Amino acid sequence: MRALTAEQFSAADALGGVRGVIESVAPGLLFVVVYIASGQRLTPALVAASGAAVLAVIVRLAQRTPVTQAFSGLLGVGIGVVWAWRSGDASDYFAYGLWVNVVYLVGTLASVLAGWPLVGLVMGLFRPEGPLSSSGSWGAAIAWRSDAVLRRRYALATWPWVAMFALRLVVQVPLYLADEVAWLGTAKLAMGLPLTALTLWLSWSLVRGSAALPVRPRPRPER
C-alpha cells in the first residue's frame, strides 16, 4: 500500500511488477487448469500449485532478489494445499483466502468506524515527517487525526477496501458452498490482482498529494 503515497500511480509497481503478478496468479491458475484437465483429480492440482509457489521462491533465492512476496505466496498456497488435502475437497484450497478476506473486511471496517482508517495509518507512516522517513517520528504517523479534513479524506479512501473485501465474499462464498471449484477459482483470479489494482487506484486518487500537506491541529473549543 506504499503506492498510495506515490506522485504517479503505477499498477504494475504496486503489485510487484510483472514477476510479482506471475507469482501471485500462477499457483491458483495452475490449480484450476490442472484440476479440470485431470478430470477433477485433486492431487495433480495440488502438486501443480505447490510446485509453482516453490519454484518462485527458488528462482528468487538463486537470483538473490527479495523473497518476501514469494514467501508470503508460498505460505498462502501451502495452507490451501494442506487444507484441501486433509479434507479431500478441492474447494478447500480456496478456504484460507476466504477467511483472509473476512479478517481484512472486519479490520478495515472497524478501522473506519473507530476513527482510525487504515489508509490514514498507512499515509501517516510514509508522511515526510513520519517514522519511515529519514528523520521522522512515530508521533507524526498519527498527527493527521488532529486534522478533521484529513481524517474524513482517509476514511473515504478506506471504504474502497471495505467494498473490495465484501464483494469478494459475496461472490465467492456461495461458489465455495456450492462446491463450484472451477467458477470459484476463476472468480478468485478475476477478483484478485485486477480488483486490487482498481482499489489501489481509487484510494490513491482520493489521497493524492495529502502526504505533503501540513497537518492542521484540531481547533480547541472556547471556554
UniProtKB/TrEMBL annotation:
Task: Cite the entry's keywords alphabetically.
Answer: Membrane, Transmembrane, Transmembrane helix
Is Ribosomal protein set as a keyword in this record?
no
Q: Classify the source by domain of life.
A: Bacteria
Where does the chain cross the membrane?
A: 21-38, 44-62, 69-86, 98-126
Q: Does the keyword Cell cycle apply?
A: no
| Descriptive protein name | DUF3159 domain-containing protein
Instruction: Give the source species.
Output: Cellulomonas fengjieae
